[in-house]
Amino acid sequence: MSHYLDPIAAVEQPRQDLIRYLLTAYPLRDPHLRYGLEEQLKQPGTIWQYPYLEGSQPYQTTKSVSELVKLDVLHPDVAHLFTPAQRPLYKHQEQAVRAVVEQQQNIVVATGTGSGKTECFLIPIMNRLLQEGATSLRSNPGVRVLILYPMNALVNDQVKRLRQLLCQQQQPLIRFGFYTSRTEQTVESRLQMLRSQARLVPASELADPDTVVVFPEPSWGELSLPQLRQKLGIDGILASQVKQVFYRDRYLNGQRANFLAELLQGEGLSANSQVTILTLETSQSPPASELKAELETALIGLKAIEIQPKVTVQPCHQRSHFPHARELEIQGHDQQKYKVIFDRGLDFLEKVENRETYRIKHPTYVAVIRQQ
User: Fold this and answer.
1) How far apart are alpha carbons 150 and 279 in whole angstroms?
2) How many CA atoms, within 13 angstroms, populate the side-chain half-sphere of residue 86?
3) Assigned CATH for 211-371
4) Higher pLDDT residue, 316 or 92?
5) Every domain of the chain and the residues it spans
6) CB-based contact 295:260 (threshold 8 Å)
7) Where are the alpha helices (DSSP H) in the chain?
8) pLDDT digits (tens, 9 = 90+) for 315-347
9) For residue 53, what are the CA distances in angstroms to 6, 10, 11, 44, 163?
10) Which of 2, 134, 246, 284 has its CA 20 to 30 A from that of 16?
């Protein structure tokens, strides 16, 4: 395989990315107008030109992230975020990292395009957060870092980079949010924007085989339990043998425990399954033993055959252990893992009185993610 750069092929991907960004950032409702805009953007001279070639010398390289970890310059977990950790940094990147981490200096990095300026500030930022430690980050949640950009386009580009970076965490300690002039101000408006964009953008541009996002809403009407599980995208997850189920919910009560038990019904749940619930313990919350008993009863009563899964309810006093969204993690005996994220927990569901059907109380979203 050739290791030489193909300059013609190298310009094709950025061109396609730019066109995709413009179509997503400025969606058109009329499919004919959208098609016409896309064809116009593809024409040379509209937003792109054929490449001009200019030779330039490579930047001088020095030590890698893993080498800086061995020298105690960086926290060991930094090597898990910036991969491959063995790749040499540019000289100006190492100088910037050492100036901030070792000498506590304020710096200005003035180098060319594509020279890795982002690493010059992201590596010290992540190093500082990781040095603070899991205990401090969980017990004292709050904003630690502000990153300011002069244009929305730069923010959108960096958001993708941060997502890829923080997905490498062994524990989800560091989170981020972003705000631009296009950010919606309320939950309802954000959900409405997501729905409208999801309908306008072709499926080929949104395709992600590992993630499915659905938007339950009252217009779904009354649904049986199998219909509800199918529309939420969780019916196939429980078809195979389930080893572990882990659910976080800050405000779990008996009704939500029953909803959880009903959603978990599947052929894969058995006496060998371990169900663990983490919930916040307050003076108003039900005792853990009561929640455990209700969950066990619901799990057994809703199965065609009786099972006795191992159920554990763990009370917790730290609010920082719970994200805003409720997370359901499912692992099979084949080690395949799934994460189901409920934006507002299970409060969006209600059971129809005197009927074995369910309905959606208010709009929300549910994301089902297959983890590698």
Assistant:
1) 41
2) 0
3) 3.30.870.30
4) 92
5) 61-166, 211-371
6) yes
7) 7-25, 31-41, 65-70, 78-81, 91-101, 117-132, 134-139, 152-166, 187-200, 203-206, 225-232, 254-263, 288-301
8) 665 555 555 557 788 887 777 888 888 876 787
9) 11, 11, 11, 17, 32
10) 2
